[in-house]
Amino acid sequence: MSSPADDSGYAHLRLDRTGQAAAFDALGDRYDEAFPHKEGQVAAAEWLIRSLPTGSRALDLGSGTGIPTALQLAEAGLKVFGVDLSDGMVALARRNVPAAEFRQADIADLRPGGPLDLGRFEAVAAFFSLLMLPRAEIPPALRTIHHLLVPGGLFALSMVEADVDDFSIPFVGESIRVSGYLRDELREVVETAGFEIVDESSFTYAPASADIQPEVQIFLRCRRRHA
């Protein structure tokens, strides 16, 4: 019989985070300066807040500096946990959002049977964090999020619409690797992982940094199916 960790899909993957955390450690506060307006992200978090009772447990996956999402959720009375690969981002988030709890970890650490068990959540937000993974890891990451949510739990996801896989790009003076899907394929991947997409929106976004091209951001509001 396979173990829960095997069932998550990570068993046969070689995880390579070379340079990814270091790039965000180096960015520090410059990340928020490069992305000053996050209307789509704020709106998606507001959907979570409207849909959840005060005190619900919410996970900010790829929490960055904690701004705006962890702060927004905590100020609304949710019990917020944040996870980020970058020690530097975790340090900033702890300073920016003292009401939340932050841990340095990889999403793979949260898989069923993995080394970090944070319990179950009524909501998970993953804003532009899954795009930091190779495409082969995105379905296991989505299954991990499904595992982290209670039945019927809410999932807010954002990705940049792009047909790329583990593609190196300049990013605020650093270099990172990103992946993406075209819209219909993204919907298929999310639904296959056990989510119902209840709403979708998109924004054309021009970051305040010369080395980042304008992008189309897709926001999906999802609900974990009970099965």
Note down, in words, how this protein is organized.
The protein is 30% helix and 29% strand. With 227 residues, it is α/β, with parallel strands linked by helices. The protein is globular and about 40 Å long. The model is unreliable at 1-6 (pLDDT under 50). Strands 3-2-1-4-5-9-8 form a seven-stranded mixed beta sheet, with helices on both faces. A two-stranded antiparallel ribbon has the order 6-7. The protein has eight helices and nine strands.
Portion in beta strands: 25-35%
Mean pLDDT: 86
Largest sheet: 7 strands, mixed
Overall, the morphology is globular
Order of helices and strands: HHHHEHEHEEHEEEHEE
Report the structural category: alpha/beta
What is the total tally of β strands? 9
Considering DSSP H and I runs of 4 or more, what fraction of the residues is helical? 25-40%
Distance between the termini: 20 Å
Question: Largest beta sheet: what is the strand line-up?
Answer: 3-2-1-4-5-9-8
Residue stretches low in confidence (pLDDT < 50, at least 5 long) are: 1-6
What is the gyration radius calculated from CA atoms?
16 Å
Secondary structure tally, helices: 8
Write the layout of secondary structure elements.
Elements: H1 4-7, H2 20-27, H3 30-34, H4 39-51, E1 57-61, H5 69-75, E2 79-84, H6 87-96, E3 101-104, E4 121-127, H7 138-148, E5 149-160, E6 167-171, E7 174-178, H8 183-192, E8 195-205, E9 215-224
Main traits of this protein?
single chain, alpha/beta, seven-stranded mixed β-sheet, 29% strand, 227 residues, disordered N terminus, 8 helices, two-stranded antiparallel sheet
